[in-house]
Amino acid sequence: MTRIAGALALFALTPSSHAIDVDFSGFASVVAGRTFGNCQSGSMAPHYDGECTHYIADWGHAGVYTEDWDVNPESRVGLQWTAKFTPTVSGTAQVTGRLSRAQKASLEWAYLSYTG
């Protein structure tokens, strides 16, 4: 993230005859879920030993639903930042945060674009 910030700062400090156009947008999704039906015992991961886990919604972000209602597995908020530095160079970055205690806010992706 430091390299990206440095590159963006470099473009921001470059003399130009126009202002930098910056846009912010955001989103939030609150997703509630639970499982129904017969319990299928068995361990998917050591953290879930002894529990009756039913559905993995998002394994990469610890999104696992059980028989209790829960909003943590898939709910998240995000902020997207887009800046047009010159008529040909722009940058976009997205930061998201999840409700799960195992997750923190993180840079999901960032890129610079050049249009020739």
Structure description:
The strands form 2 sheets. Strands 1-4-5-6 form a 4-stranded antiparallel β-sheet, with no helix packed on it. Strands 2-3 form a two-stranded antiparallel ribbon. By secondary structure, it is mainly β. The protein is built from 1 helix and 6 strands, in the order H-E-E-E-E-E-E.
Order of helices and strands: HEEEEEE
Span from first to last CA? 26 Å
Number of strand segments: 6
Largest sheet: 4 strands, antiparallel
Proportion of helical residues: 10-25%
- Low-confidence stretches are none
Shape descriptor:
elongated
Instruction: Compute the CA-based radius of gyration.
Output: 20 Å
Helices and strands, with pairings:
Elements: H1 2-13, E1 21-29, E2 55-58, E3 63-65, E4 76-84, E5 89-98, E6 106-114
Antiparallel strand pairs: 1-4, 2-3, 4-5, 5-6
In short:
With 116 residues, the protein is mainly β. The strands form two sheets. Strands 1-4-5-6 form a four-stranded antiparallel beta sheet, with no helix packed on it. It has a two-stranded antiparallel sheet with strand order 2-3.
